[in-house]
Amino acid sequence: MRTLCASTLIGEVFIIGFAALVAMKDPDLSMTTVWTVSGIAMFLCLLLCGMVTRPGGVALGWALQIALIASGVVVPTMFFLGAIFAALWWASVHYGRKIDEAKARFVAQAGSSTPDAA
Question: CA 94 to CA 90: how far, in whole Å?
């Protein structure tokens, strides 16, 4: 699960950076505000890459997805991209857990089929 979720979060880092470049064109927003908010969001994505398997990591990922969708208020394209990345996040969590379960079953079967050296 960790690899799939981390890949999704790394992709989001780039999307947030590109959205910040678009948001800089808004005359109502200062460059400092745009890069502070975007920088914090990008840092959280990177931090979450290492926390995704810890308790609450997936929930924090969902909170980040909601924030990404909500950023569409500033950059309307982010409504669409946020929804795409929320779907990717769901798939990463869902299929990542299935892969982890399959790996655990494989290890358990490989351990139980070891011949006894008696």
Answer: 6
CA pseudo-torsion sign 102, 107, 112, 115 = positive
Termini Cα distance of the chain: 38
Q: What is the pTM of this model?
A: 0.85
Within a 10 A sphere around the Cβ of 53, how many other Cβ atoms?
Answer: 13
Q: Is the pLDDT of residue 95 over 70?
A: yes
Rg (CA), the chain: 19
What backbone torsions phi and psi does residue 115 show, to the nearest 5 degrees? -70, 145
Q: How far, in Å, are 20, 73, 83, 107, 108 from residue 40 at the CA level?
A: 12, 18, 20, 39, 41
Q: What is the pLDDT of residues 43-66, one digit of tens each?
A: 999 999 999 989 999 999 999 999
Q: Which amino acid is at 42?
A: M
Write down the pLDDT at residue 114: 64
Tell me the C-alpha to C-alpha distance, in Å, between residue 56 and each of 9, 43, 48, 53: 16, 17, 10, 8
